[in-house]
Structure formats: structure tokens, C-alpha cells
Amino acid sequence: MQFHAGHCPNCHNGRLFLFRESETGDVYGHCEECEQGYRSPDEIESRGGFLTLLNDSDAEWATADEISRSVWANYRIFQT
Ligand SMILES: [Zn+2]
What's the CA-to-centroid distance between 29 and ligand 1, angstroms? Predict the structure, then answer.
């Protein structure tokens, strides 16, 4: 099961799939289209974020349990 946080504010096209960074345990949103990453819902609202290309290899799909203990816990999350 995979989770996403709706559509990307950068490209308005991709969905923000949630990954867990292996090294830090942080859950972040990763746009499937433009590769923009968001570390928190606040970054989506402010259209901040970072480019995920550099550290993408050290991440796995976030689980429901991990999401519930992260900054995304109270955000609207969709399942696929
Ligand atoms: Zn995008």
C-alpha cells in the first residue's frame, strides 16, 4: 500500500507520494512528476521544498504507522 498527500503545488500534475528517509527516519512527500520533495505540510502550503534527486536511493515507501507518527499525521493522506 502506498500513500500520497494530494497533488504537487509545483507542477500541479504529480502526486506527492510519501517516503521514509532511511538515514533520518523522516517522512517526506515526493512528487512523481517533477521530483520536488516536501518535508512537511507547511512546505507544501508555502511552496517550499527541495529537489529529491540526490538522496532518493536511501528512501522507502512510508507505512501508515510511520505516517501517523510523523508531521503528516494530521494532513489529508490518500491511499493507492
Ligand atoms: Zn510536481
Answer: 10
With pLDDT > 70 as the criterion, what percentage of the chain qualifies? Answer: 94
Report, as an integer, the average pLDDT of 39-68.
86
- 3-state DSSP helix/strand/coil % of the chain, to nearest 5: 20, 35, 45
Cα 16 to middle of ligand 1, angstroms = 7
Res 62 pLDDT > 90: yes
Q: How far does the centroid of ligand 1 lie from the alpha carbon of residue 66, in Å?
A: 23
User: Distance between terminal CA atoms of the chain?
Assistant: 6
